Amino acid sequence: MIDEVPVTIFTARTVHAQAGRPVEAFAVTGERIGAVGELAGLRERYPAAAVRDFGPATVVPGFHDAHMHIGLTAEDLLHLDLSHAAVGSMDNLLATVREGARAKGPGEWLRGARFDDAKTGRLTRHELDAAAGDVPTIVTHVAAHWGVANSAALRELGYHEDSEPPAGGEFGRDADNRLDGRLVERALLDVLYPATSRTESPIRPSSPEERLVGLRRATEMFHAAGLTSICDALASPADIALLRRAQRAGELTLRTSLLVAVDHYAKVRELGVGSGFGDDRLRIIGVKGFVDGAIGGRTCLLSEPFCDSDYRGIQITDTEELHRSIAQVHADGNQMAVHANGDQAIRLLLDAYEEAAHTNPRPGLRHRIEHCTLIDEEILRRMRALDAIAVPFAGYPAYHGGALESWYGPERTSRMFAHRSFLDAGITVAGSSDYPCGPFEPLLGLQSMVTRRGMDDGITVGAAQRVTAAEALEIYTVGSAEACGEAGRKGRLAPGYLADFVVLDRDPLAADPEDLAAVPVAHTYVGGTPVWSRQT
């Protein structure tokens, strides 16, 4: 009977069934792994099975990003790429904006994404006015928590010199106290991002057909990096509709978990769906909320000010509202995942989690802290007591390098992206990029966690938080699966698990830690089927 279902045996010089646990081969039936073990034994057990031998390559479980934004990425890929890697200088950024503005018709908006002021330089509405003229233009920062609008965009949005920013938001101002075009937190989120918007916006949303094009581009990009599963950590109804459309068309090859934006939770609750609703391709796992701002955007909520400043960041969500929303989601038996970067933000969040657990005990319901960046011993103790899950940035030490110390100082940097501390404290820790806010490549994330060295400046930040390559791989597979409630079917090459795996040219557990990001991906498989292969 067993041979009536097609079976394929996969083998290679090195097969890591789990980080540091090699096997010779594994057999796949349908979308799942049927058995692992010695190649000869599997051949005998499945005599009719085809054998796929990857030769000198290494096979690892599929990489799983527990916090990124595929809906936002699908949108960004339709607009100008203003990342430092794409433009290299402020002159080139403005030239790209100028060219984009020329192509716009009357009433059309121009959008650009992934601008990085720390790498490319300072940008205000005045530079955008000179480049884009009367074309309403918004450029979002790589951290996605603030952006810069030109004068035409400010007018269209109804923002003027006497405007009061929305609660949880700020307007940037120059030395003369005039608007400089910076829209911070809710001042940007409410007009640009449908997942968090609380107001009507004059910016025309991209059509479902346009966003599907962006989704296809994003999916190929992520598969090429070895990603087989991701969690979209801020899903709106439009994002869910986009992913469902791709699923119906057979195009959703990237397994996607969803954290529904808390502003849309009432709709989800009304439908009676929640954590665990869906299937192995598309599943709702919980609800996303916010406490504070960004690390790279320098708006996170701190107990002590940023270096050379008296600024301590911004609280996006009112404390009372935070407690109310967490209490509701918790009482419904759903997982809460809340963005909290600064130490003060994390403490506020832990207060709310502790209150919910005390008021309405829910054994086994584990909540997440998204980013969970700046920690201390008290925070670790409280998280361990709650069995809370940490989802910190993997690639930020590599991406930001020494700039982190200029913003936070070396002592605080030694307590940021604290993978070592989380592991030592027995706290579940997942791998995440927060793309498009950080680099999405998992192998770069592994290198960043192992070396803590900036990829541009070579500066080591927070060396005490280094982990081994095996621990880093475990974080990006088993840890992420556990954070998404999928530990029983993802993260390992084991019987009954989904046959999601990546074929690499070199063994990441034996590679030079400084070269982990350069380990080539040869193939990416989802459910035993190749979804991406390198062109030869």
From TrEMBL:
<dbReference type="InterPro" id="IPR013108">
    <property type="entry name" value="Amidohydro_3"/>
</dbReference>
<dbReference type="Pfam" id="PF07969">
    <property type="entry name" value="Amidohydro_3"/>
</dbReference>
<dbReference type="InterPro" id="IPR011059">
    <property type="entry name" value="Metal-dep_hydrolase_composite"/>
</dbReference>
<dbReference type="InterPro" id="IPR032466">
    <property type="entry name" value="Metal_Hydrolase"/>
</dbReference>
<feature type="domain" description="Amidohydrolase 3">
    <location>
        <begin position="57"/>
        <end position="531"/>
    </location>
</feature>
<dbReference type="InterPro" id="IPR033932">
    <property type="entry name" value="YtcJ-like"/>
</dbReference>
<protein>
    <submittedName>
        <fullName>Amidohydrolase</fullName>
    </submittedName>
</protein>
